[in-house]
Amino acid sequence: MKSLPRLPHEFIIWWLLKAPRRILKISSRMLVLTNNQISFTTNLRLLFVPLFGDYSIVGRLIGVPIRIAWLISGLVFFLLLIPVCALFPVAWYMAPAFVYKFGGPAYALAYILALYLLYLLRNRDIPRVRISKNTKENFEESCRNNVLTALEKLEADQSSGMKWLFDLPSSEKIFRRSEINTGLLFERLRSAPSIQITALGHGAFADALRFKSKYIETEHLLLTLLNNIPKIDIILSSLNTSIKNVIGSIEWESDKRNARDRIFLWQEDYELMFTGGFGKGMLGRVTPNLDAVSRDYTREISLGKYKKILGREEDVKKVAQILSGSKENVLVIGEPGSGKTTLVLGIAQAIMESNEYKSLSNHRLVGLDIGSLLSGATSPGMIAENLKKVMDEVRGSGDIILFIDEIHNLVAGAGDSSAETSKIYTMLEPHLSSDKIKFLGATTVSNFRKYIEPNGAFSRLFHLVQIDELPKDVTVKILENKADKLEIQKNILVTYPALVRTVELSEKLMHERVLPDKAIDILNRTSTKVGGSSSILASPHIAATIAEMTKIPVETVTQDEAQKLLSIEDTMKKMVIGQDEAVKQISTALRRARAGIRDQNKPIASFLFVGTTGIGKTQTAKALAEHYFGSAVNMIRLDMSEYQQLDSMNRLLGDVNGSSKGLLTEMVRSKPFALILLDEIEKAHPNILLTFLQVLDEGKLTDNSGMKIDFTNTIIIATSNVGTKSIQQVFSEHGTLQKMRERALADVREKFAPEFLNRFSGIIVFNPLTEQNVREITLLMLDKVKALSEEKGIHVKFKPELVDVLSVKGYSPEWGARPLARLIEDTVETYIATKMLKKEFNAGDQLLIGTEAME
């Protein structure tokens, strides 16, 4: 199945037809690029348009002859260039005859042989037919040599062929990018059922088409091979990866290869990038004053400072259409880091790349730096003079779109007559309201609502365009481009799962920022840490960085949710005494939510804990926070008895005027991966209950400043003492747990509205504690005292009679076991501390403490 070398007749066809055709194609590209640079056709179209916007009589008189002179010189240049380009194919054909005439037959033969050898060398691993011009039945004609060799080896012996394919450098790179251990994978696949070679070829052909590749590469065969192995998802899952990671890695490498094939003029797939541009036809003026206080985005794009701008194509199109089709200015609104500057660069790139939007072609997109404008100015008069010079240049040039970032700063200072920005706003306002200059502004959502929206006169000057957070798949593509640069700078390899993990975990745990900004920040931080110590940046490195940034333990970040739920019941029973049934119901409800592929637009789970005081409701919440979220620190606790009045809503959600932030919304915004405990929910104002109804139903809450807070990564627990009397009565009558639950739930349904109760994942009734339960709780609390003493070097044990006394005195039917902690603190802990201060207990002592601690 090996590819045959190129035969002489193929060389003849290439020399007679294909090579001259390529030469003509390159020549035509040269003509297009030359015309784009000298603007010959543009000047022809603008023959009677004055130079540099000078519409005076003198300007018109001077403009026409200069343009005619420029056209004549351009025409002469083209008349010389066109025949030169046309002569290139002729020279190609005449070269052998030329060598024969001046060098003789030997040199002519040597020339042809050398050309043939170069042809063979160049095409030694280039298939005869491109994928786009082939069919799957003839897939061999589009295969690289290594692909054909691998197919041959796989057909002879699948196991050894697979090993040979896996050991290829291209395959090893894909495995490293996918975080796959090649040796372990081969051991699991070596005995896989045989796969038909034709099926592999057809599959590789289809994958090459999917990735827009020119030929079938080894990674396409690798992917097809994996996809044809039974239960490959399970096998890869056992290696902590997936087929999606392999596909993502291959697509990443394919995109880079395709990009490399479009760089140079002589490449077959070369793309003419900058056929648009600015400053052509001698229309725009020289703007030295503007240049001193601005940033020219179109010039930066033309100098190649940025790759293809990703992720804002539709927004770029929308803004460009507005600027092209109307006299309105545009105000771009988006959260910090959402890509407002990227959008501006995208518009500049659209100007440089094409003339799709006629009124934008040949324009400059320039960002005005207000800080630079103010710096050096010692008085308002100097500010006014500097700005006047700048705006005169902008207006006179006629080809400038002026971009002002953080444009709300102009309005923020408008009410303060002493503010420097107030002067700028006053002077810019006439230009903003006229149709002579196009303005593009940018601001954040909060600043728009705070400063611009209330100023109706200012906001009406703009057409508003709000941009949203970028989708996850687009962010991954942006991270791929960023990773390409980091790999060169840091000499590392970034894995594809690391990029996916960056996006997923940042979206899950960092809600105060948006994509792609937060994902790029995480990747930058991780690359800095990994660069000096490791050659591969993998997903565990990303998890460690996010754990550090969010203060969430790395084990919690990396542990799979399903694994947490499998062990949750056993773990919580060790921390919560006497409530096995409640713990079981919580565990079951959590597993049910997870197994049912929980609604990602709602909290992870929500519970209403009902029962008497001091029986373990809060302790259960702490245990759940510690197990699921890594620490009891990740529990947000609110005493709802403090929110009995309607105006207390502002404490939760913040003031409407933005003067103070909401307690609940701010805590969840800064700690989105947490358990929220709402103590004594029945005491809250009914309107506040309606607010939590929205949280339970939609997983989001809008604070009074308009910011949306995400609750989808929280577990919400509300506690209530409703039903206490019924529970105690049934308990005193030695009734069953089922009867206790029925009576308590009846009281709960009488207190709360059905639509509120129906939003909870479960309503858990906690039973009163038995004497044995109280004794176990006492032992658990004494273990904590023992641990504290051990830290001081004192080894303590407690007599059974002390445990008995504490159990009796520390429990009451009204307060449950709540007094027990205070009792142990006042007696046992105080006793040990006093003895230590008196030097009666010292490090190394072994003590057995009894009821003397109660005296």
TrEMBL record:
<dbReference type="InterPro" id="IPR019489">
    <property type="entry name" value="Clp_ATPase_C"/>
</dbReference>
<feature type="transmembrane region" description="Helical">
    <location>
        <begin position="68"/>
        <end position="92"/>
    </location>
</feature>
<feature type="transmembrane region" description="Helical">
    <location>
        <begin position="98"/>
        <end position="121"/>
    </location>
</feature>
<dbReference type="Pfam" id="PF07724">
    <property type="entry name" value="AAA_2"/>
</dbReference>
<dbReference type="InterPro" id="IPR050130">
    <property type="entry name" value="ClpA_ClpB"/>
</dbReference>
<dbReference type="InterPro" id="IPR041546">
    <property type="entry name" value="ClpA/ClpB_AAA_lid"/>
</dbReference>
<protein>
    <recommendedName>
        <fullName>Chaperone, Hsp100 family, ClpC-type</fullName>
    </recommendedName>
</protein>
<keyword id="KW-0677">Repeat</keyword>
<dbReference type="Pfam" id="PF10431">
    <property type="entry name" value="ClpB_D2-small"/>
</dbReference>
<dbReference type="InterPro" id="IPR003593">
    <property type="entry name" value="AAA+_ATPase"/>
</dbReference>
<feature type="domain" description="AAA+ ATPase">
    <location>
        <begin position="326"/>
        <end position="468"/>
    </location>
</feature>
<feature type="domain" description="Clp ATPase C-terminal">
    <location>
        <begin position="769"/>
        <end position="854"/>
    </location>
</feature>
<dbReference type="GO" id="GO:0005524">
    <property type="term" value="F:ATP binding"/>
</dbReference>
<dbReference type="InterPro" id="IPR027417">
    <property type="entry name" value="P-loop_NTPase"/>
</dbReference>
<dbReference type="GO" id="GO:0005737">
    <property type="term" value="C:cytoplasm"/>
</dbReference>
<keyword id="KW-0812">Transmembrane</keyword>
<keyword id="KW-0472">Membrane</keyword>
<dbReference type="GO" id="GO:0034605">
    <property type="term" value="P:cellular response to heat"/>
</dbReference>
<keyword id="KW-1133">Transmembrane helix</keyword>
<feature type="domain" description="AAA+ ATPase">
    <location>
        <begin position="603"/>
        <end position="770"/>
    </location>
</feature>
<dbReference type="GO" id="GO:0016887">
    <property type="term" value="F:ATP hydrolysis activity"/>
</dbReference>
<dbReference type="InterPro" id="IPR003959">
    <property type="entry name" value="ATPase_AAA_core"/>
</dbReference>
<keyword id="KW-0067">ATP-binding</keyword>
<keyword id="KW-0143">Chaperone</keyword>
<dbReference type="Pfam" id="PF00004">
    <property type="entry name" value="AAA"/>
</dbReference>
<dbReference type="Pfam" id="PF17871">
    <property type="entry name" value="AAA_lid_9"/>
</dbReference>
<keyword id="KW-0547">Nucleotide-binding</keyword>
<dbReference type="InterPro" id="IPR001270">
    <property type="entry name" value="ClpA/B"/>
</dbReference>
